[in-house]
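pasting for the record
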Amino acid sequence: MLKSAILLFTCCFLIGPHYSQCTNVGSSLVAPYVSNTSDKGVMFDILPSKTVTITCFEANLPASSIGNYEIYYRPGTYIGSEIKPENWQLIGSSTAIQSAGLNTGTALEIPVNAVMQAGQTYAFYITSSDSALSTGLLTTDNPGYVLISANEDMAIWGGIGVNYPFNTVKLNRSFNGTAHYTLGNTLAVEFVDFSATRSNYSARLEWQTETEHNSDYFEIERSANGWDWERLVTTEAAGESTSPTHYHETDADPLEKISYYRLNQYDLNGTKTVMKVVSFNNEIEIPENEIRVSPNPVTERVMVFGDKSELKNLTVYNSIGQDVSDAVTITSHNGYSEVYFENQQEGVFILKSKTSSQILIKK
């Protein structure tokens, strides 16, 4: 039976790429840099009194440290979701961030651009992801769920320390940092959602925008680890739209285990905006005495998954029943085999294992 795809929590937010501009525009709210303790990461709530777009954060990092950081987000409070990663959306990550010094704001090079509606609570989790750092953020003890900082636009509440990732909780820790923001929804494209779901042996990638202005095209990138990305496909955008627009693409050959997909949007002037990152779990439970193949149709090679005994002696036949196993290359790996068809003509082939078979189409 197929395992269902694992998707990160969905929410409406956009991520902008031009971080260097982040701290130089708009407004900011400072959560005091008065550290007396430290944590791997910290969770806190933001309650806006006006609609705002959070553009980026600065944080209080240990002096002389260099580390990797991640930012997560969810609509609603963090309370009740402290150790539930499925309730959070990874906004982004950055490597080799160097501390600006003790009790000083260090810019986290992770564009956020989360649109938050007035009167609704939103939670953030800022954390070091570097195992080499025993602590990632400097924080301040507090007596409980308290008001950390506020102005006429929004307030910061909480918080708690949390070991990476979504692990041991340390109560009563206040975030030391600066939230940079602009008033209103300042994003050119109103983005609804991006998802990855299973469709046979493929990953179906779908997204929707509410409105678009000067939108040129979308790009989907894929990664095996969430750090290193490669372009998968591009899709022409609507350009100008005041009504919902739906898009979809297919990854016919997702990675063997976890695939991360990142949706980017490009304006006509070349400005890139990272819309959302989702994950897709391609791990499949294969019943005994069965095999699974991917991709199908085949272009150059097919991966065959199954029990070791099933994969021990694979045989390939052409459409008229001739054994062509010697004309293809079969390589064995731990848990799967690969059959290379690059020298074969287009057509139908039958792949047989010990007790099972699959029809393959060579394109």
